[in-house]
Design a protein that fits this description.
The structure is a homodimer of 138-residue chains. Chain A has 138 residues and is mostly helical. The first copy, chain A, is built from six helices and two strands; from the N terminus they run H-H-H-E-E-H-H-H. In chain A, strand 1 and strand 2 form a beta hairpin. In chain A, helix 1 crosses helix 3, helix 1 packs across helix 4 and helix 2 crosses helix 3. Chain A is elongated and about 60 Å long. The structure holds a DNA duplex (30 and 30 nucleotides).
DNA sequence: ACTAAATCTACCATATTAGTAGACTAATTA
DNA sequence: TAATTAGTCTACTAATATGGTAGATTTAGT
């Protein structure tokens, strides 16, 4: 299951995406409008800033804003940042491969082959969904 | 990430699948050959028995065996039993729908629409993969 | 200097995961 | 019927992840 952190992060990004190229938005405004615990949101936005998606300004008139075009922000990448690899097992991850501790032999593991199919299915959807696509869904 | 429990369970089922229609297999044999903690495996096999996939016999000559044809055992169902719904969020689950606590309004939530696509992608793979298919992979 | 707003450091409670220990029950066989 | 075998049940436990909170600090604008 996707953790709250990722869901909150996506909601916040959507909020900022709708104000793309507008003025800075307060954490507290996003927190209120999206019903996200403010302190938790702080940490999430900071992480997305450190990964290069947002910028922030302190003091009066400050706040957060999106610095990438919503067309160029992919949901798969956001979820990897906020929740880790998309793959269902570490042995089936492309971006963070590691042999699963549960399997005596990674090479011959058939579960891995199946999970690689699943990972590909997930990635195909999430890596092709831009923030813009998401905002335009209905 | 898929919990160890589900991975162990799948490995054990594969082991029993290869001996389909043979004599009962000891928990301790599966535990040794598949390198699964025995006590943990006990609980997993019991669960699969209670769901109708396995039968067990106590005493000498006892053990566990698969009672469904491997063609009729679907990995999606096994994972649902051992690890819960396949969907990435509760709001996108078909088998266990519940509104996510993170979203003010499920109806209009665009994240849900995306996650429903993901859930469908996952389910399409796992619900069409039988234990037999899995055993025949290479 | 004052105030607004992000940032940093350090916690904390709860739930989940991944087990373990040990008594108990049921079936077989000598 | 007694001993043995093997699954079942109840009750813990340790470690980790999740979902936060509190409060001091830094930076920027007026």
């Amino acid at each position: 299951m996707l953790p709250s952190k990722a869901i909150y992060g996506l909601r916040a990004l959507m909020f900022l995406g709708e104000r793309y190229e507008g003025s800075p938005v307060l954490i507290s405004e996003i927190a209120e409008k999206e019903e996200i615990p403010k302190k938790f949101l702080e940490a999430i936005l900071l992480e997305l800033k450190n990964k290069g998606y947002l910028r922030a300004k302190k003091g009066k008139g400050g706040g957060y804003w999106l610095i990438k075009n919503p067309k160029d922000v992919f949901i798969g990448d956001i979820i990897r940042i906020l929740s880790g690899p998309l793959a269902p097992t570490s042995c089936s991850s492309k971006t963070a491969f590691a042999p699963c501790p549960e399997c005596p032999d990674v090479e011959t593991c058939k579960i891995r082959l199946l999970m690689e199919d699943v990972r590909q299915g997930i990635a195909e959807i999430l890596d092709n969904e831009s923030l813009q696509n998401l905002l335009e869904r209905k």
